[in-house]
Fold this sequence. Notes:
Helix content is about 55%, strand content about 0%. The chain has helices spanning about 5-15, 15-25, 35-40, 60-70, 80-90, 115-135, 145-150, 165-180, 180-195, 200-215, 220-230, 250-260. By secondary structure, it is mostly helical.
Amino acid sequence: MDLEKAVEYVHAHGNAIERARMAAILWDEPPSEAVLQELAALQKPDGGFAHGPREASNICDTASALEWLDDLKLYRGPIADAACRFLLDRQQEDGGWDEVEAVLAYNPPEWRMPGRIATRTWLTGLCAQELIRFGYAEAPGTRCPADFLLAHCDTSGRLAGYERATWLALPMLAFCPGRDSEPFRKAVVVVEASYSPDQPGSYLAWLLRCLQDAGLPAEHPLVARALADLQRRQQPNGSWESEDAAEFAVGATVEALRVLKGYGLIAHAPTSWRC
């Protein structure tokens, strides 16, 4: 891995929030007031976020914004508190989440269509993971997301819907019923069996973030394979490829740096690279 090239790529092509996320990851640098104001401007009055300025607040984009705040180490404050409350208020009676109906006005892709179990399983894993990070795993008045996840899990440990639903559920299953539980162990086996090294960098980074949040160490065989594959997937220009589109390569690069740093593969980044 060429760390210097990755840093140069984010500096050259990233926006202010992406550069601030990288600085927080590599140098523990707090975000500037200008970045905080930019984040606040992106947030809707109801506390949620949306990819487009004219779109309604939704579950997917709000959870993604919490990932940014996690990178920035902004676990409390008006932005984080309101975003977490947006998700908490939209948890359903069965413990899971669904995408808001308002996204139908924007012709969402299939994987974001509300009302589908395949949408609900991966979104529930994602929301649970974010809320655990922000200290809301057992918020008063909420229901346990593991109840929904386990209700849509087959005997092998695979969750209904998309392949990533199973690995997105790992942080929640590690929390409840726990890392020593049969559901967690089975889910890890399923993820290992379906693993492919040919996925884009953003996919591998997201998988690794879930594995790390689930408490799997760097020496775990799946983690070790994914870390090695992620490093090999770095592009000649220093970036990592996004599974969504080329325009998201900076975000994919920041996400890769996050997990490589988290797993101890980035020991030191010279402060002279900050600018």
